[in-house]
Amino acid sequence: MKIINQIYWDRVNETYMYGTKLSKRIDETVTFQNNLMASGEKIMRWSSRLNYQAYKEVPRLPILLSGKKYRIKINMKVNPEDTAIFCLRFFDIQADEISKVVFSSMEKEFIYPSQAVSYTFEIINGGCSEINFAKVQLGRADLPEKAFDEFFVMPLNQLKEVKKVALILVADNKRARELPEELKTTITDTQIFMGYISWQELFNPVSRLESWLKKHEEETVLIFSSDKKIDQILEDSLAKKCDFEFITSNYTLENQGQQPWFLPEMVKLDQQQVLNNVERYLRK
After folding, report:
1. Can you give the residue range of the structural domain that contains 276?
2. For a pLDDT cut of 70, what percent of the chain falls above it?
3. pLDDT digits (tens, 9 = 90+) for 240-259
4. Quick one: pLDDT band at residue 263, thresholds 50, 70, 90?
5. By CB distance 3.0 to 4.6 Å, which of 33, 67, 124, 241 could disulfide with 85?
6. Do 49 and 117 have their domain in common?
7. Is 275 helix (H, G, I), strand (E, B) or coil?
């Protein structure tokens, strides 16, 4: 399984609070405002290692493998532009810093040092007064760049002539996007896509899905939902605007015990089983 970790601004005790106005919304997006903060000060810090006895929380950064290459993507807006600095710090078993990566772009590839046993990620003030922060994504560097998008669509088969299109929608787990190593389909008369919607996108109108549908307005489009929240989005937001056939999660999940969407985050969706159910529907 290929994993893209989703990291949120959810710990105030690692935030610079002197003179700060901080607001947080239900989708975990955060607005940070501070006109008094000096340049060079640390705005926010995440760590892969925490003292559980002190914080009673698990680390927010995932465990990484020594010598492997990763990509980190920061989803936020800064005012003024280009006034935030980012820093990855790597530590050995004695908690001594062995190296660091400093950058100002919203995306960066890096190699996790062979001697590192923990690391931190920091946002540092470079003259900014406001940050509108959504999340940080962290995953293997060999994953396609588009796999980090809020709405990522992956083709499962390739057809020369396409008259019918099927899109299987999957809602991300709050903490991670899970991409199977390989999904196989034997369907030859329908172009099948797997579409991944970010957890935060479920709180807002899915404009990206509307754009995707417009690209396929010449074909017959079927949309298969695998989540009750997606059912509601399709019924409330898209059904009146776009022309497509909608098949609810009641069908795609019928062989998985009808897992309710409100179960804890650790419940994993069997994407291959969902695909098998879609294939059975298409063969009818």
Report:
1. 149-283
2. 92
3. 777 888 998 888 876 554 44
4. very low
5. 124
6. yes
7. helix
Report the side by side order of strands in the sheet with 118-125.
42-47, 118-125, 84-91, 97-103
Q: What is the pLDDT of residues 209-228, one digit of tens each?
A: 888 988 998 899 999 999 88
Quote the CA–CA distance of 284 and 279 in Å, as a whole number: 9
Pair type for strands 164-171 and 191-197: parallel
Residue 203, classed as helix, strand or coil, is helix
Cα 100 to chain center, whole Å? 25
Cβ 34 vs Cβ 129: under 8 Å = yes
Number of domains in the chain: 2
Conformation bin of residue 28: beta by default, left when phi > 0, alpha when psi is -120 to 50: left
130-140 vs 97-103, strand pairing mode: unpaired
**Three-state SS for 109?**
strand
| Longest CA pairwise span in the chain (Å) | 65
Contacts of 264 (CB under 8 A, 6+ apart): none
CA-to-CA distance for 196 and 139, rounded, in angstroms?
15
* Domain end residue (candidates: 84, 115, 144): 144
In total, the chain counts a number of residues equal to 284
**Domain stops at, among 144, 178, 201:** 144
Average pLDDT, the chain: 89
Note the pTM of the prediction, 2 decimals.
0.89
Burial of 140 (0-12, 13-18, 19+ CB in 10 A): middle
**Closest by Cα among 130, 80, 79, 77 to 106:** 77
Closest CA to 263 of 275, 251, 276, 249: 249
In angstroms, rounded to a whole number, what is the distance separating the alpha carbons of residues 84 and 95? 26
Helices (H), 106-243: 207-215, 228-233
